Amino acid sequence: MTAAGPSVFLLMVNGQVESAQFPEYDDLYCKYCFVYGQDWAPTAGLEEGISQITSKSQDVRRALVWNFPIDVTFKSTNPYGWPQIVLSVYGPDVFGNDVVRGYGAVHVPFSPGRHKRTIPMFVPESTSKLQKFTSWFMGRRPEYTDPKVVAQGEGREEQPS
Amino acid sequence: MAEVHVIGQIMGATGFSESSLFCKWGVHTGAAWKLLSGVREGQTQVDTPQVGDMAYWSHPIDLHFATKGLQGWPRLHLQVWSQDSFGRCQLAGYGFCHVPSSPGTHQLDCPTWRPLGSWREQLARAFVGGGPQLLHGDAIYSGADRYRLHTAAGGIVRLELGLLLRHFDRYGVEC
């Protein structure tokens, strides 16, 4: 009796970060990266990217469009750790510093075909009023050192947003 | 070899501030793909909407690809230009979308963007026309050097694409 070896499957993700709605902010760019479990590995394509800076259109829609391609193929033996795409959006504040405007994450869809996902974005909040004022003034907002924590469930109780 | 048929139309464009629009389109694929029949790129006619704001082209697309691998799944890239009464052309937006990967008919809305220059160039574009353009078209469908650009949104291009797949199950691909 021979034991069957683990079977490998591939997941190909093709798509784009299409656009965003941020009523209060303008001149934004976004970074995407993938978070996946130990049994997963990217085999082709780019697993991270930085988009262009986009400004709101002058017409009534006030749309922020990136149309930024995502093209990556993963190899795995186990659905546990299914990849999530983590998006971080940055923009300039009133002093011209680049500050984070939102983080969000969503799992790559499980079924083949066309999918559209709208992701709510959140920003970590300072815990004290003094820290809030200092960070506004200095342009150093609370930021995650590694945006990949957004994709994890552990430790979320400690983070107000 | 697995085969893919892409059959559909570039319906038209809406949401652009300029009228009298035309579209230059092309399909980019990876190295494993081969075009068996159809034209890989083209240009639509110039359309000026008489009623409403949507410019209709109804430009047919019929492509037949054969492929040895999934990498480099076809991407349709678009450049929307406007033509004024003097015959000068001005860029209205760049956009791209992946050809769908599941069989059937799909309605696609492709958003577009155009490069913004300095405030001087934006002022000149408003009065005289012209404006910055990309030197190399591959920034439209590739994310590699996008971080250098500063862009603004253009309108939306509407497409209706139908997809037929053949022999994909032989290679263990679920679509």
What is this structure's SSE topology?
The complex is a heterodimer of chains A (161) and B (175).
Chain A: E1 9-20, E2 29-35, E3 40-45, E4 48-50, E5 53-55, E6 64-76, E7 84-92, E8 98-107, H1 129-138
Antiparallel strand pairs in A: 1-6, 2-4, 2-7, 3-6, 7-8
Chain B: E1 2-14, E2 21-28, E3 33-37, E4 41-43, E5 55-67, E6 75-83, E7 89-98, E8 104-115, H1 119-127, E9 150-166
Report on the architecture of this protein.
Chain A: Part of the tectonic-like complex (also named B9 complex). Chain A: Keywords: Cell projection, Cilium biogenesis/degradation, Cytoplasm, Cytoskeleton. Chain A: Belongs to the B9D family. The complex is a heterodimer of chains A (about 160) and B (about 180). By secondary structure, chain A is mainly beta. Helix content of chain A is about 5%, strand content about 40%. Chain A has one helix spanning about 130-140; strands at about 10-20, 30-35, 40-45, 50, 55, 65-75, 85-90, 100-105. In chain A, the strands form two sheets. Chain A has a four-stranded antiparallel β-sheet with strand order 4-2-7-8, with no helix packed on it. Chain A is globular, with a radius of gyration of 18 Å. By secondary structure, chain B is mainly β. Helix content of chain B is about 5%, strand content about 50%. Chain B has one helix at about 120-125; strands spanning about 1-15, 20-30, 35, 40-45, 55-65, 75-85, 90-100, 105-115, 150-165. Chain B has a five-stranded antiparallel β-sheet, with no helix packed on it. The radius of gyration of chain B is 17 Å and the shape is globular. The mean pLDDT of chain B is about 90. Strand 5 of chain A pairs parallel with strand 9 of chain B.
